[in-house]
Design a protein that fits this description.
With 529 residues, the chain is mainly α. It has one domain. Helix content is 81%, strand content 0%. The protein is built from 20 helices and no strands. The longest helix is centred in the middle third of the chain and has 38 residues, at 311-348.
Length: 529
């Protein structure tokens, strides 16, 4: 059996559009959630305590169990090779492997949940050692309430993987809306004098609902969980573990980077960690949509191409996928650098979220924006490693960057006194380091065609520089000559600069004969015809 490249390219693009639309809806609801939180809490002690505490359960729910996380990735990489025909119910041995995986996952996270429930203050005391006793106690209580998220995360990750193998892309990408909706509803409904722990309770309730809505579809596909403890002498389960545990360690290393940031941020100012959190959310809105839309449908194809030993197919898909991501990422960078402040202002600045908080978020966002290109490359090349059942190399690369992260934070925060911008600049440089090393090491498995990829990237960057200069001039002119009511002014400025950016950037890419622009243009014209 061989994979038809032309048919799959069309199916990947169709799936990418569906996932992009669904993810946009999910992200928009997430933005509304953040606006509600910002309105009621601002950048304050309570919001800092919640976001500090949330880092640990989010490791399970988002990093480990989310779309693209280790549990989702391990499920896709192993089960997609065991299910050749998606129209049939899973064979008994596949169902048995599923039960073993679910049983082991549940037991592992229950143990971690008990430890987190018993020792919350000790855990938060280590993570935010620079914080006040009030901050640590508040964060510890938030952490205790969100204990169930650890168990839920791993199970949800397996569910996501199963659904995506069967090309059910909608539900995994829509389900985060449930958590956002729960947070919005509970925070608004709870009286002002009782909002202290409302965020933690809302997050826990939302996660439980997220699990509940996945289950019926997984069962309908024929996957039934019957506790199975066959953890040894089980080749397929061993293959899952060989991929899963290094991937978990790799994600945990990423979380260690966050803890390093939390340690340094606790010495900056109240609200600093909340500001970085909001900057990451703004960053993830466009970037997360792009990466999720293209990598979710591509990953199962990568895995099947590896099983078929079609290395040329992998290179073709990789270059086209990453090329399109690069093409879309550069105008996002231009937009953040020219109207990022205006976007943060119009989205968040109301209620307790003042102009100082707006500037803090924007400062973090400016320095974070330069990581977009290495970010999409790193996440894409990591999926190629996973397709070869190799999660050890991404782990070792991520682990080696911990020292780099710490050193950069020391230089930027302690010596150069860059504040919040120093935290996110160090994140961008670490992302670049990981992308470069992973890109170099993949040649041990197959020789990638980087020349065509980076020739096209060079053309895109030239167009991006010209677009940035043009948009910067337009933004300055807008500030100097246009007078409108505050919100209308901000929205108009963002819209005008956005349109100018797309016209200049796209036009220059066509003039420079950039391959991906021409291909996307042809597909767009064919759709119109």
């Amino acid at each position: 059996m061989t994979t038809n490249l032309s048919d799959n390219q069309g199916s990947v693009l169709r799936a990418a559009w569906i996932i992009a639309v669904v993810t946009i809806v999910s992200k928009l609801i997430g933005f509304i959630r953040d606006i509600v939180i910002a309105n009621y809490y601002g950048a304050s002690l309570v919001s800092d305590a919640y976001y500090y505490a949330y880092q640990i359960p989010s490791l399970s729910l988002i990093l480990l169990g989310g779309v693209g996380g280790p549990f989702h990735s391990a499920t896709v990489a192993i089960f997609s090779k065991l299910i050749p025909n998606l129209n049939d119910k899973p064979k008994p041995e596949v169902n048995k492997l599923y039960s073993t995986f679910m049983t082991a996952t549940t037991l592992f996270f229950v143990v971690l949940s008990v430890l987190m429930f018993v020792f919350p203050r000790q855990i938060m005391g280590v993570i935010i050692s620079g914080g006040s006793a009030e901050m640590i106690n508040l964060a510890a209580m938030h952490l205790k309430i969100m204990t169930p998220l650890l168990v839920i995360g791993g199970i949800v990750g397996i569910y996501y993987g199963i659904l995506i193998i069967y090309k059910q892309f909608m539900l995994p990408n829509l389900s985060p809306i449930i958590m956002s909706a729960a947070i919005i509803g509970i925070v608004i409904a709870v009286p002002s004098d009782n909002k202290g722990y409302a965020l933690a309770w809302a997050t826990t309730i939302g996660a439980i609902l997220q699990l509940v809505i996945q289950y019926p579809n997984v069962r309908r596909l024929g996957f039934l969980w019957k506790p199975n403890f066959q953890f040894f002498n089980n080749p397929n389960f061993k293959a899952i573990n060989e991929l899963l545990f290094p991937a978990i360690l790799s994600s945990t290393v990423g979380q260690i980077h966050i803890y390093v940031d939390m340690f340094f941020t606790s010495y900056i100012s109240d609200g600093a960690w909340t500001a970085i959190g909001y900057a990451n959310r703004v960053f993830q809105f466009p970037v997360g949509i792009l990466v999720t839309a293209f990598l979710v449908p591509l990953f199962p194809i990568f895995s099947r191409l590896v099983a078929e030993k079609d290395l040329e197919g992998i290179k073709t898909y990789f270059n086209k996928g990453v090329g399109v991501l690069f093409f879309a990422a550069i105008p996002i960078i231009v937009g953040i650098l020219t109207v990022g402040y205006d976007a943060v202002k119009v989205v968040f600045e109301r209620g307790a979220f003042d102009n100082n908080a707006t500037f803090m978020v924007t400062e973090a966002l400016w320095f974070l924006s330069v990581s977009i290109l290495p970010y999409v490359f790193r996440d894409s090349i990591t999926r190629v490693y996973y397709s070869f059942n190799d999660s050890k190399t991404p782990f070792l690369v991520a682990f080696s960057s911990i020292v780099l992260k710490y050193v950069l934070n020391v230089v930027f925060i302690r010596y150069l006194e860059m504040g919040i911008g120093g935290i996110t600049l160090s994140t961008s440089l670490v992302t670049l380091f990981n992308a470069c090393v992973l890109g170099a090491f993949i040649t041990k498995k197959l020789k990638m065609d980087y020349k065509s990829l980076f020739v096209n990237l060079f053309k895109m960057c030239l167009a991006g520089v010209v677009a940035f200069g043009t948009c910067f001039a337009v933004a300055k002119g807008f500030d100097g000559f246009v007078e409108l009511p505050k919100t209308i002014f901000e929205l108009s400025k963002i819209a005008v600069v956005g349109v100018v950016c797309l016209i200049v950037y796209t036009g220059l890419n066509f003039a420079l004969r950039m391959e991906y622009a021409q291909e996307l243009g042809k597909r767009f014209m064919n759709k119109i015809k």
